[in-house]
Amino acid sequence: MAQRPLDGxxxxxxxxxxxxxxxxxxxxxxxxxxIKIENPERGGDAARNNSPYVTRDGLSVRxxxxxxxxVSMLARGRNKESITLDLKNPAGREVFFDLVAHADIxxxxxxxxxxxxxGIDHAAVAAVNPAVVYTSISGFGSQGGPGTGKAMDTIIxxxxxxxxxxxxxxxxxxxxxxxxxxxxxxxxxxxxTLSAVIQAGQxxxxxxxxxxxxxxxxxxVAAEPFDAFEMIGLPIRTGDMVPRLAPFxxxxxxxxxxxxxxxxxxxxxxxxxxxxxxxxITDPRFEKRDGRVHHADELHAMIAQWAADKxxxxxxxxxxxxxxxxxxxxxxxxxxxxxxxxxxGEVVPLRHPSYGDIVELWGSGLPITMSDSDxxxxxxxxxxxxxxxxxxxxxxxxxxxxxxxxxxxxxx
Length: 412
Description:
This protein has 412 residues and is an alpha/beta fold. It is 37% helix and 15% strand. The chain has 17 helices and 14 strands. Strands 6-2-1-7-8-9 form a six-stranded parallel sheet, sandwiched between helices. Strands 4-3-5 form a three-stranded antiparallel sheet. Strands 10-11-12 form a three-stranded antiparallel sheet, covered by helices on one side. Helix 1 (19-29) crosses helix 7 and helix 6 (153-160) runs parallel beside helix 8 (213-221). The chain is elongated and about 85 Å long.
């Protein structure tokens, strides 16, 4: 196996739920040794209690045995080691700081102020190991936020403005089905973390990387000039179409839907040819982009009428034959089984650590292909505390008596 980019780096993972665990999942896929520190009293990561579960008999809404594992954990826990540690206990914090002495990165997604109350914040970690990069992912940033300061993906979507960019004029707000707030912040967190690791390699000093879910999502809303559109009277919410582009949008076929994006003249002319109207290529209404935009309703009505009685496969074949960018609108079940993304390791099978491939399930891979490095998520998620002995004895050198004492006192 080729070397992975983060081989030799140790990450202490204090995260739970989705945003934090997705960040550490990416670091694990890049080769870091990720040691997931879980609360023994609460049954570990909250994702361990997300229904449905993989059981010995297949998928179930309810857990049937201690070995059963949630699909969420099967996906988010891959390539990680799990230890249990009570960080409210002074003996637990002592173990944590022993781990910090060996670590390169710490990632946490507690609510603002919690790490300071526990005595495991950036200042405390830096005092033990000044080279550590300490990454925080929270709803509003380390200074805290409005109201309760608690942040769920739906709350972040609501505050970011993104809910008012989808749907049509006059529609109620649209919540994106994908938890984009939870998944976007960890991408920025990993970028910041790896940048800080590079700098730490030059200076010997780590730093605090602070990423908020609200800031990450709102920054992308601001990447498209919606406020400028509103100022000059352009609609912000345009449903399946974009008024500045034609032909463009989502259309119905007899057995499904398809998308077209043909903003350039050659692409648009391919659409006109595919729908049997090559005569319109030289028509002043449709020859150039401005004319097509001005007559978009007429153009889109022709496309809709042409496709209405055809199967999606035939529509796609005709459009592609004439060089028009198009795609079937697929359900997630079909999309994650695309041979292309499977071949590239961008979507990979999920395996239960005990039951194996008892259910056909697919999870995110690492969508980064590198010419001279290996990447990937190829080890199943661990059971809670599965690596207690391996980490404490192997990495920290604790003897059996000390580990037994920690276990008996419920630190582990």
